[in-house]
Amino acid sequence: MDPLATLKDEHSGILRLLYSIDRQLGWLESSGPDMFQRILGSMRRKSGRLSHDLQVHFQRENALYPILEKRMGPDAETVRVMRQEHQQLLDRALAVRSEISRMVVSGDSVRTWGLVALLQELRGGLSDHMSREERVLFWLAELWLSRVDRKRVSFDLSQMGGRSNSSLKRSLSP
Ligand SMILES: [Fe+2]
Ligand SMILES: [Fe+2]
């Protein structure tokens, strides 16, 4: 499979997972105390999965970025910026997870605004990062990578085995 298409599929899976956490936040805010903890528990599991899937996805992008940086030489600033954003996004995903855990542990069913703000930050950062990747970076990759380069990236991705498709699979099941 085309390596860029594979990475795009992973974006969709990750965003779907994030949107489903977002939807649950809406239910959380309109639910009574008994449902609150159940929804929160499910949000905690999903946010754990989100952090994991993000980490795997960013590792897999390391099959593409270094070779692209090499081919682009001094023009590779965009690639470097995108790589730097990975750590920031992972930190934001972890912050969401920690806030949900705090609410579970403390039985807090009132103060949701912290979580609302953290989720908003993560959603903004992640959708911006991924859309820039798809519109700019993958386009540059089409331009700069040779057929052999692409084959190599494809091969490296397949060798990483743990394709970050757990979200994709889940999104296909009810
Ligand atoms: Fe990325
Ligand atoms: Fe990405």
Can you give a write-up of this model?
The protein has 174 residues and is mainly alpha-helical. It has a single domain, classed as Up-down Bundle (Four Helix Bundle (Hemerythrin (Met), subunit A)), CATH 1.20.120. 84% of the residues lie in helices and 0% in strands. Helix 1 packs antiparallel against helix 5, helix 2 packs antiparallel against helix 4 and helix 4 runs antiparallel to helix 5. It is elongated and about 55 Å long. Bound molecules: fe (ii) ion (2 copies). The site of one fe (ii) ion has 6 residues, from helix 2, helix 4 and helix 5.
Order of helices and strands: HHHHHHH
Strand content: under 5%
* CATH class designation: Mainly Alpha
Number of structurally distinct domains: 1
In total, the number of strands is 0
Topology, pairings included?
Layout: H1 3-29, H2 33-61, H3 65-72, H4 77-106, H5 113-144, H6 147-159, H7 166-172
The structure holds fe (ii) ion (2 copies).
For the structure shown, list the relevant keywords:
174 residues; 0% strand; disordered C terminus; mainly alpha; Four Helix Bundle (Hemerythrin (Met), subunit A); 7 helices; binds fe (ii) ion
Short description:
This protein is mostly helical. It contains 7 helices and no strands.
